[in-house]
Amino acid sequence: MPMLYRLDAPALAVGRAFNARVGDDPWAGGHVAPGQFAPVITAGREFIAGPRPAGRVLETRMIPRLWGVPPPPSVPDGRPVLTVRNLESPFWIGNLRNSEFRCLIPATALMEWGKPSPADGKRRQCWFSCADQPLFAMAAVWKDSEIPGFALLACPANAALRAEGRETMPVILPPDAAARDLWLHGGWDRAQALVQPYSSSLMDLRRAPED
């Protein structure tokens, strides 16, 4: 899974692309690493108590959230959880089944460390982007504690990432509003079908140059 991604678009452009209210989000573009705040697209249910109103869809909005959520008490090292790998985990299942806790993470590229170079044995950054959507959405869920955080959903790596030695990748949603709406508002019985690898043929790879 990536430990770095880029969102090379300002807040207003991201809001327009995802039909989300931006508010005062100051994002101007750049990279995001674990433990940093990043723009997150939500269904607008944060801080609202009670069940979702029947037949009513709240305004989609973009807010800053921290990449990483506090782990369950059983985890001894206390490191923030960055990804959701087990869809049946008791720690995540409530967030996944209740659509108001699902969110979208806009991105323009994600970074994975490639295989060691045969020349010097060093791993180099491999930046993956989507050829069919310059600005794409990764599926995620949010949790609130002292700090509002999010975690990316993981799925098996596609052929392009497996070629670089990766076993998993983030869930990248198809480039259509229906898929994004399904993740934000749909029942889990249908939304979980989106948890699958993105097609290798639709991804571009740019490797960092050798020293």
From TrEMBL:
Pfam families: SRAP. InterPro entries: SRAP (IPR003738), SRAP-like (IPR036590). SUPFAM superfamilies: BB1717-like. It comes from Novosphingobium beihaiensis. This is SOS response-associated peptidase.
